[in-house]
Amino acid sequence: MTAPHGRGLLHLAAALDQQAAFDAASYVEPAQLAERGGLDFVTLGDTFARPGPDALAVLSRLAPATRRIGLVPTVTTTHTEPFHVQAAVATLDWVSRGRAGWQLDVSTTEGEARLFGRRHAAPADALWREAGEIAEVAARLWDSWEDDAEIRDEATGRFIDREKLHHVDFRGATFFVKGPSIVPRPPQGHPVRVVDATEGPARRVAARYADVALVRVAGPAQARAVRTELRDAAAEFGRNPDALRVLGSLVVDLGDGERAAEPGHGGGGPRQSAQGPLYRGGPVDLAELITAWHASEAVDGFHLTPVEPRRDLERLVNGTVALLQHRGLFRTFYPGSTLREHLGLARPANQYAVTGGAS
User: Fold this and answer.
1) C-alpha of 28 from chain center
2) Cβ-count burial of 284 within 10 angstroms (0-12 exposed, 13-18 middle, 19+ buried)?
3) Angle at the Cα of 13 (from 8 to 18), degrees rounded to 5?
4) Per-residue pLDDT at 355 exceeds 60
5) Which of these, 95, 48, 78, lies nearest to 191 by C-alpha position?
């Protein structure tokens, strides 16, 4: 199914972030609401720079409370063990039956470094190079079990076919991983990797490794330029650029009633704020903005962060999303059960099974 203007259907996602909310149950209702609207996935931010719940643990709690929507926690690659990170993300994919994603991020401050005491803070470009290496080793570890490596043969007492387990033997600039993983290959093969590609140091990592790139820009022309840059870079890395989804990131304030977008918002585009591009207006004008950006090939969809989570997410689903569905721009049902299926992305082949890599 394609949209009326000839492009593929929109992809839509929403952030579940709430200030000072430490009870995982408080995230269940918003996630279920987003799922009722058919959104591709929800995200939950995380950082060592401020107090807050562990995003991956919270979304693991949401997995049994939801059925279709993708679950994408932020998991930093700085000061954390790559082997443990990939295993945790793979586990989320298993408990959600193939709905997991992973938003990669880095920690740049000395205060965050002191929490661990292993090393000092480093420049962003060095940390993003390390993040790229961790994205690479995660994919290798997810592939270190072939899909049929588990035998579970009670008669012979064999649980695993050792010929279908592979050592990755990856050496990065700051770490070494032998493998194989301790978690069988995830249901999606590779959980969906998401990168905020707004800043330059992260853009190369997004082009090479991300399935979804987020861009915080305030106008369609700028968004289109970044999307083109990302797709061109992906092709240079030998990737199919059509396998990269580029979503515009907007903070949305939908208010308490229908109203036109305020000056500087909507129409010609939102305006920059301390939190990123901000749209302030009603659900109808937000639908117009989304439609216009998508039709002009500025983005493949949007990642929306509500100012007031409960109020704005409800108005987003019942107003903006409903209007986009009525126009045939957004689906009315999930086409499959995994996040990759929602995004129209193929399940990656196992690199060791395909190439016959040595174990």
Assistant:
1) 18
2) middle
3) 170
4) no
5) 95
Residue 157 burial (CB < 10 Å; 0-12/13-18/19+)? exposed
Three-class SS state of 87: helix
pLDDT in tens, 125-168: 999 999 999 999 999 999 999 999 988 777 776 778 889 999 99
Joined together, the tokens standing for residue 177 give 């991983």
Using alpha carbons, select from 290, 359, 238, 354 the residue that is nearest to residue 3: 290
**Strand runs (DSSP E) across the chain, as ranges?**
11-15, 41-44, 70-76, 101-105, 150-153, 158-160, 170-171, 176-177, 192-196, 212-215, 245-253, 271-273, 276-280, 301-306
DSSP string, 190-210: SPEEEEE-SSHHHHHHHHHH-
| Tens digit of each residue's pLDDT (9 = 90 or more) over 199-236 | 999 999 999 999 999 999 999 999 999 999 999 999 99
Which tokens belong to 81? 């063990």
